[in-house]
């Protein structure tokens, strides 16, 4: 969550606080423009940035003096800062701690901060200062897995694998977890290639499964998305670490076999229906559209609109 302020604007609202120093005259400067020169050695200069929700973001990586500070002095400084931010009516504190400064996590927790999330090199803790229960948004609630149903219309064969790491060896579609910033279709194509050696291209999205407290999702929920892919190579060279078997199987056989998972069986029947009646009956196609607020682009998946609805011509 980045403040929507220019650097000059942000400087104007920096909330600067000092813990009580040994000598007189060093008090916490209140007000948005507070400033104190030459803070005494051993004190803690905690500058935060105001966000658009009235919260303070405190990034320890940007504070040079912290290298020489011990946990107790940090706790004192943070306590004074929180007190001041509370009196100024701030709603929350976001505390970003680089992994090498993790000694500051426990002092923050003792003041009521809780973990919000962690990345490989940092953690973020929050403290709600506003009225009533916290309105801060939680972190990620799902992991996203994507599989590719690679279907060759000319032979009516579908690409299936058996997972080496499962207790029961059932046929399923190759797939795996999406990487940060990766489009759903790109995950399907990448995972299919990594696991089977088959090259393919994205055609459509076929189904979405949501499952809570999935054992492989570190306590989070799992979103498992199956895409229809079209192959453009056919020689299997499967990954020995992940797969036990890999085959091109007749789609009818996959739709009928009991040696598969319920979701694979259901999607096999869906594909059979699309193959016979037209894929427009089952496909969620993708289109890229511009986002209004960010200027970025996103992918929208939905059933194809009839032409007259695309143009809205001849529609009341
Ligand atoms: N119903 C179905 O047909 C199935 C659906 N899924 C879904 O597929 C997605 C995940 O796909 P996967 O193929 O499992 O992921 P993946 O293809 O991204 O990674 C699987 C590989 O990661 C490694 N790995 C995973 N956990 C590990 C651990 N704790 N320690 C060491 N290595 C580990 C192993 O090498 C494993 O073979 C999820 O969304 C899941 O719900 C998974 C299995 C069956
Ligand atoms: Mg996999």
UniProtKB/TrEMBL annotation:
Its EC number is 3.6.1.-. May contribute to the regulation of cell proliferation. Transmembrane segments: none annotated. Keywords: Cytoplasm, Hydrolase, Mitochondrion, Nucleus. This is Nucleoside diphosphate-linked moiety X motif 6. The keyword Ligase does not apply. Monomer and homodimer. InterPro entries: Nudix_hydrolase, NUDIX_hydrolase-like_dom_sf, Nudix_hydrolase6-like, NUDIX_hydrolase_CS, NUDIX_hydrolase_dom, Pre-Nudix. It is found in: Cytoplasm; Nucleus; Mitochondrion. Pfam families: NUDIX (PF00293), Nudix_hydro (PF18290). One of its GO terms (biological process) is negative regulation of cell population proliferation. One of its GO terms (cellular component) is nucleus. The lineage of its organism: Eukaryota, Metazoa, Chordata, Craniata, Vertebrata. SUPFAM superfamilies: Nudix. GO terms for molecular function: ADP-ribose diphosphatase activity; FAD diphosphatase activity; NAD binding; NADH pyrophosphatase activity. Belongs to the Nudix hydrolase family. Residues 141-273 form the Nudix hydrolase domain.
């Amino acid at each position: 969550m980045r403040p929507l302020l220019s650097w000059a604007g942000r400087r104007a609202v920096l909330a600067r606080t000092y813990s009580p120093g040994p000598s007189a005259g060093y008090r916490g400067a209140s007000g948005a423009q507070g400033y104190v020169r030459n803070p005494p050695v051993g004190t803690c200069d905690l500058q935060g940035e105001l966000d658009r929700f009235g919260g303070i973001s405190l990034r320890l990586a940007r504070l040079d003096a912290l290298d020489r500070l011990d946990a107790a002095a940090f706790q004192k400084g943070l306590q004074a800062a929180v007190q001041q931010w509370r009196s100024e009516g701030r709603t929350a504190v976001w505390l970003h701690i680089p992994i090498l400064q993790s000694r500051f996590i426990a002092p923050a927790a003792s003041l009521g901060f809780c973990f919000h999330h962690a990345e490989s090199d940092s953690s973020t803790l929050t403290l709600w200062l506003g009225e009533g229960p916290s309105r801060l948004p939680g972190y990620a609630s799902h992991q996203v897995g994507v599989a590719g149903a690679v279907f060759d219309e000319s032979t009516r064969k579908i690409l299936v694998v058996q997972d080496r790491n499962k207790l029961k060896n059932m046929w399923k579609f190759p797939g795996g977890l999406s990487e940060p910033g990766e489009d759903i279709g790109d995950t399907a194509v990448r995972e299919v290639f990594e696991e089977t050696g088959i090259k393919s291209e994205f055609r459509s999205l076929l189904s979405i499964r949501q499952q809570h407290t999935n054992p492989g999702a570190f306590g989070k929920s799992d979103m498992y998305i199956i895409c229809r892919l079209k192959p453009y190579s056919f020689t299997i060279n499967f990954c020995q670490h992940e797969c036990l078997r890999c085959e091109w199987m007749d789609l009818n056989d996959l739709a009928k076999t009991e040696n598969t998972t319920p979701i694979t069986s259901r999607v096999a029947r869906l594909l059979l229906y699309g193959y016979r009646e037209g894929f427009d009956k089952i496909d969620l196609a993708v289109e890229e559209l511009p986002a209004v607020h960010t200027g970025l682009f996103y992918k929208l998946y939905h059933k194809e609109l009839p032409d007259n609805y695309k143009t809205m011509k001849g529609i009341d």
